[in-house]
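REVIEWER CHECKLIST
Item 1: Sequence provided? yes
Item 2: Single chain? yes
Item 3: Sequence as submitted:
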Amino acid sequence: MTSFTTLNWDAPDVWGIVVGRGVSTVETGSLGAYEDWLTSNGYSVLEFCFAGGISPVVAQLGVYFRWQQQFGYELEADSRNLAALRDGFEIETSNLVFKLSSYESAIQEDEKWAQGFLSIVSEHSLRQLAVGGRFFAILPVHNAETPLVGAFIEDLCIPYPFRFRGSAA
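Item 4: Structure as written out by the authors:
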C-alpha cells in the first residue's frame, strides 16, 4: 500500500510530508483555503493551540493519546519528558494533520521541548508514510519572514549497522 500514487509537488500534503519531513508552515492568510484543501482530500485536522503555553497542550495530548489507558496514569500537564511523549505518541488515524497554532509561544517558553516535539512529529510522519498512512503538522505563520521558517529541528546521522538475526535465504 502506498501513501501517494503520484508526487504532486504543488500539493500541501506532499510538501508537508516529503519536503518538510512531516512539518509544514502555512501563512495565516492562506490557512482557510489550506484547511479546506485538507478536508476535501480526506484529512482530519486536529488543533493544538500553544497560545496559553505548553502545559495545556501536553494535557490535551494526554487525552488524545489515551495516556491513562496506555500507561495507567495521567500525563501531567507540566511534564516535559520528551522520551515519555515519544513512547506514547501513537497515531491511529490515517490522513491526520496536527495544526500547531501559536507555536512561537512554545519556542519562547521552552525551545528544547518545542524542537523535540517537532522531532517526534517528524519521526511519526515517516512511520506513517512507511505503512501507507499520512500524518504531518502545520504551523500557521504570519509570513515567510518568521524565525520558524528555516529553523532546524534535528540533525540526521548515519545509524548503527543493522544486525540481521534471521537465517539467510
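Item 5: Key structural point noted by reviewer: The chain has a mean pLDDT of 91.
Item 6: Recommendation: ____
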